[in-house]
Each structure stands twice: as structure tokens, then as C-alpha cells.
């Protein structure tokens, strides 16, 4: 089965619109004022700084921003030695060479909202460095300046700058993005990146990609490899045998990857995407059967492929029980159907249940030259064929009894006696990191029009709602003073109703 990489990245990015949490940047929150005040109280305030031993000073140093560390280094020889010996915390370093202009862009992200951006540009025999330090990424506050290095190579200067910052943080950065095909590995000072969790390499040289991979731990949260020209690079079987490929949680090849059937069956990724070279339909069939029989990758989410010819659907489904997404299926789970196909486009979909756990299932999405395997059934929230919403518990404060009805996709309903002012509703949905909102409506007619793209939401001022999300789903809880005329609907962010809570006196 031959394949092409065209469109794999587009398909993946479409689906990743739902993954606002799955792909977080890894940048940590800045310490709160309370945390800093607690530390000041503990150490007796900075007026007692000279009485602190070196261990205490180092702990304070770890909380300081880069500029504050620099100022402290001028206070005394002792402080200067501590500043020099205490690694600076850097979350992300990104270095990327321009494809149309002779420049290299570098970004340093700290453990706060501060960013340092530099652009090294070739100007004759000199290097011009555009330097911008963002004091807070939420605002436009920044400092900028231009530095000129005479008779210098802009690429070498950019690499030197990047590796100097890596040394400043003791090579302990968590996220690294490199977009330089000819990164000078022969002269690099990098030995190991022991705490790297996410690695993205862009370039057309296999040896450089391999060099970077060998610098990071064997198991990453995310590994992404993207050639600039996929006709120039195929990730070979030998390359794919590396533990960083076989063991990492997220593995994305935006190009050709020559996995054999045996190799692919041994991968442990929750998410994997690539254009196959040697992988066969039988291999994909065995991969699905591993999940169906309860032996699939732990916490599997999806696998996405792009083929140049027709997907051999018959071979892939051989020996598998499945249900085609037809009109009856759409009537049963209309909201899920709409969400799924709105994000991924048309094509043919089939639901494949687990033989081990009736609450687990896969969706096979097949289109021209494309196939995706998505885990859409979750034990925590029930199988795909069961209702979307279910009441799981009540609050503790008693209120006047009111009888309510929960509707799931306009299907069967269940009448509930609510005697408290807090309702906990748990929702199972296909996309673990999707973004949902809760909408409150004054009447059923307005809610129906809204779901059809009609009236705007009329929020009930006295109502409140919260939400929490994890990798399996989302839970909402509602608080209000029960009123006879109150209808509470929930919907996705584009208005498709998942379920509704309305008074039982209202017919539907």
C-alpha cells in the first residue's frame, strides 16, 4: 500500500482544534503573590538576606526572573557566585531558520509570561540582531533594541546564543523546537537534554534528526518530525527503532515513515500520525484487533494515516465487528455525529466495539487516501450508543422539591426529583480535550432556535456554572434557586445540544 504525506498535517491540525489541553505549551504559571509573601515570611524578609545560608538563597534565586537574578549578581561576590552556579529555569527554546530570508529566529520562554524574541539577520558581512523582550505576553509591554555584530555569520551567532542559554539552564529545558536543516552538530556543545519532554525537529537531514533524538530521554510526552520537503526524506526502519519513537506518548511524522507491520504493532503512542511506506492493511487490522482484544496502547487516542491510493477497507476490517454510521445511528447520537464530521470533514465512518469492555469503542474514519482511527468510547462516561449526559450526584443544601427532566439528544428522558440547589452533571464526549460551554435559556423555544442558529443566548443572571476537564471528559455543575419557569440547556460551543435539563411540566 503506497502513501503520500500530503494533507496529513492538515487533517491532524483540524482534529487538534479540539485539543486545546492535549498540546499545552508546558510553560508554568508564575508564582502567585501569596506564594512569594509566604516565602518572604519564612525567610524573614530581604532585610535578613545576609543572614541566610547558601541553600536558602538558592531557593529564593529559583523564583527570580532573569533580570532580577542579574541585579542580584552585582550585590556581592557571594551572590554573584550563587547566581552563576544556580541554573536558570527555561521552559522552551525555539530556533528556526527562515526559508525566504537569510535570518534565524530564536525564542526563549521562561517559567512566567515573559518571552525573549531575537531575529538574527544577514546584512552583508554583518549580523543584525532584532531583540525584543516581552514583559508580559498578555499585554503589549515590551523592550526592544537592535544589536549589530560586525564581520560575523548570522547562523553561527544564533546557534551560539541558543547553546549559551541552554548552558544557563543547565540543559534542563522541557520543550525544544529546532528548524534548521544544517544545524552544526559537529561543533555543538550539547551533550544531553535530560529533562526535555517535548521535541520538534524540522529539516531534511535524517542524521541531524537522529542526533537530536539521541540527546533526549527515551520516553517523551511529544515527538514531532517534519521535513521541509517530504520527497527528500523518508524516516527509515532503523531510525524508527529508536526508543524515543517507540515509547513516546505522542508521535507525529509529517512525512513518510517506513514502519514495518511488526514495528507499528509495538509502538506505545497514544497519538501517532504518518504516511506509511511499508505498513500493510493487514498490519493496521492487527493494530485495531489489539485494541479490540484489550491489548492496545495504554490510553490510546488516535492514529492517522494518509495513503496515495484507495484504502483497503475490506482487509482492514477483516474479522472485526463494526457498525456503519447510517441514518439510524445519526438519530441516536446526533450531537456526536455533527461534532465529529464538522471537524474532520466528510467520508465514511464505522464504529468498532471492544470485545473486552462494552463501554470502549473506536471510530474508523475513511476518506479518499486518508484514514483515522479514533478512540471515541470511554468507560468513564459510557459507550457511544448510550446517552450523553447523566446525573451523578446532588449538592448538600436542601431546597424546595422540583421535578426535572434530562434529555439526551432529544431521545428518551428520565424524570429527576431535585431537592438541592446544586446539580452535578457528567458528560461523556468523543474528544478528550474539546472545549464546551454551558448555555442557559429562559424558554424552550429560544433554546431550540439557538440550536438551529437562531436567537442569541439569554443568560440567567442568578445562575452560576463551573466546569472541569480531564483526559476522559468534562463535568459541569450548576447552582441556582429553583424556579418553575427555568429551563437549563447545555450545548457545544457551536450550538448543538448535548443534553437539556428542563422542568418536567414542559413537554417536548
TrEMBL record:
Pfam assignment, any one: F-box
Task: Give the matching InterPro entries.
Answer: F-box_dom, She-1-like
* Residue ranges occupied by any F-box domain in the UniProt entry: 49-89
Name recorded for this polypeptide: F-box domain-containing protein
